[in-house]
Amino acid sequence: MNRRTFLKSTAAAAALVAAPAILHSQTKVSPYTIALVGAGWWGTNILNCALASGRCKLVGLCDVDQSQLQACSVAIGKTTAGAPKTYTDFRELLEKEKPQIVINATPDHWHALITIAAVKSGAHVYVEKPVSHTILEGAAMVKAARAADRVVQVGTHRRLSKHNLSAREFLRSGKLGKIGMVRCFVYGAGGVEAPQPNAQASKDLDWDFWCGPAPLRPFNRRIHPRGFRQFLDYANGQLGDWGVHWLDQMLWIMDEKHPKTIFSTGGRPVRGAAINNPELQTTDAPDHQIVAYTFDNFTATWEHREFAGNAAEKTESVGALFYGSEGTFNLGWTTGWTFYPTNSKKTPVHEDAVLTGQFGDNVPESVADFLDAIDHHRLPASDIETGHRATTCALLGMISLKLGRSIEWDGATQTIPNDLEASKLLRRDYRGPWQYPAA
């Protein structure tokens, strides 16, 4: 299966999810066997949505942390009969259970290897964003998904949110006029970071396997559970987390694929210098970062800050602002969207957010779209290729930050032209027996 063989477009997929219950009643098929790899709080949330659909039968859970396996088993106990089989090695799970669907909710540095192994085993995959830790991993994931003829949905679930869909319709209708700039952002609060002592990993956790292809750091509770995104060995900070969601919205709404040039600056002036020694660790992701992207017809920026809060800026702390000749359009997560016309005589237009799921992230719609895409052999709304593009935008920002200068990007060839120093950062060496996937 390649892009030409899908029966419906991504746009059609987004329209269909408005009535998933009707779709499923029309598509009377046997439940799909499903397995979860990465049984933490977020993987458990996605699995619960899949099980609640009535379309999936759980055949296994996998995690290198036994405590997470136990907590997940308890959490999904009300929606599945009997205790699920548990595994600590995803390869054993794939070989023994042969699931038709795999949810990959592992830390970022594991997304590529597990997704590629799953599609090669015959499974369709729901993989969390960002799709990869480095850019060429994402390219390899797209290649593997297409070669295996499998549907891969990425957890950029805002594409399925009702108010995000209507925002896209409003902006693409021309009501904002000529759009010259998009600003994506997330703001938080914090201060100086004190180093935390390293510790012995629990007997329930295989720390070496958790680190896998990434560097083996001393275990620290600030990394696991739930803290890994602020450690650059395993993730890419706020830009690689929240940034992927909102850069994806920018690309989706503006119908763009790739930036032409990227420049980033930032650092840790408030959190302080990063520490990583045998006794102590801090995070090492930037506490603030700005990235400027140039496209043919507009400029986009990413901005995050982990200090100073946001009350003074009178806007939701996460979202995107679109600036056009007819006004400003504010797209938020929980506040919905508002159009502020340039002409003060015109009344602003607002639409409230419609949020579903346990955490208000519209994951049920994302899972419903994924299942329907499998049913109908089509691209899902958040296909692996679009997820790879959004992730690439974020990772290009990190490359520029590391280099301390601007870079160019050739999206068609997925290369940084005439820049050997930057090109080396499109991938990284893997540790131990793990092999970097071929794009």
Structural descriptors:
nine-stranded mixed β-sheet; single chain; 439 residues; Rossmann fold; disordered N terminus; 32% helix; globular; Dihydrodipicolinate Reductase, domain 2; 2 domains; six-stranded parallel β-sheet; alpha/beta; 14 helices; 17 strands
Task: Give the termini separation.
Answer: 18 Å
The CATH topology assignment of the largest domain is Dihydrodipicolinate Reductase, domain 2
Structural class: alpha/beta
Helix content: 25-40%
- What's the total helix number? 14
Strand and helix map with partners:
Blueprint: H1 10-16, H2 20-26, E1 32-37, H3 41-52, E2 56-62, H4 66-75, E3 86-87, H5 90-97, E4 101-104, H6 111-120, E5 124-127, H7 135-148, E6 152-154, H8 162-172, E7 179-187, E8 196-197, H9 207-211, H10 237-240, H11 242-254, E9 261-267, E10 280-281, E11 288-294, E12 299-305, E13 318-324, E14 327-332, E15 337-341, E16 349-351, H12 363-376, H13 384-403, E17 407-408, H14 420-423
Parallel strand pairs: 1-2, 1-4, 2-3, 4-5, 5-6, 7-12
Antiparallel strand pairs: 7-13, 8-10, 9-11, 9-17, 11-12, 13-14, 14-15, 15-16
Helix pairs in contact: 3-12, 6-7, 7-13, 8-11, 11-13
Descriptive notes:
The protein is of the alpha/beta class and 439 residues long. A nine-stranded mixed β-sheet has the order 16-15-14-13-7-12-11-9-17, with helices on one face. It has 14 helices and 17 strands. Residues 1-27 have low confidence and may be disordered. It folds into two domains: 3-159 and 361-382, 3-Layer(aba) Sandwich (Rossmann fold), CATH 3.40.50.720; 162-355 and 390-426, Dihydrodipicolinate Reductase, domain 2, CATH 3.30.360.10. Helix content is 32%, strand content 19%. A hairpin with a 2-residue loop joins strand 13 and strand 14 (327-332).
